[in-house]
Amino acid sequence: MSWADAGGTAPSLSAIYDLGGGITQPSLGTGATRDSSFTRIGSECFATCRIIWGASPTVGAGMYGLAGLPVAPKVNTGMGRHVGDGFIIDISAAALPLYVNAVLDPYFSETVPLLWLHSAIATVDATSVMVPAPAGGSPSPFVSNAHPWIPAEGDIINLRLQYEGV
């Protein structure tokens, strides 16, 4: 079933943390595609989603999180909890996919998993290669409106999640 069928909404992106430029919600643009699937076994939730940016998107400002989960996650009282992974494809760059992790961290949000870079692209001898994402500093491990890419029409975000729901 889709996320909406399970009680959530269609998957979307939300700017939930100010990276110094304020917080402005992104809009996926006209004709954006948001596909999702979901199943639940006991309290364990398994979900997938695919977001394809539409025409004339507004990228917003701030760190991106994944909104619209089909079931509210169980509140996490500790540090960040890995709940999924996936990738971003910037179709205009013809680059390697950017691998990301979805993390629930109560410091940022108890209900919206943040997207963190798992890997980044570096140029070595004029060839693009994958390298581990930095723990901090520059470049940033956050996925935001301008890092690691500037979202545009046709760009894709695919995610697979597994988390404990309420």
Explain the overall architecture:
By secondary structure, the chain is an all-beta fold. It has one domain (12-117, 143-164). The protein is built from no helices and 10 strands. The strands form 3 sheets. Strands 2-3-10-5-6-7 form a 6-stranded antiparallel β-sheet, with no helix packed on it. The chain has a two-stranded antiparallel ribbon with strand order 1-4. The two termini are 18 Å apart. The mean pLDDT is 84.
In percent, how helical is the residue content? under 10%
Measured on Cα atoms, how large is the radius of gyration? 15 Å
Cross-sheet strand order for the largest sheet: 2-3-10-5-6-7
Overall morphology: globular
The total strand number stands at 10
| Helix and strand element order | EEEEEEEEEE
Summarize the structure.
Helices cover 0% and strands 46% of the residues. It has 166 residues and is mostly beta strands. The two termini are 18 Å apart.
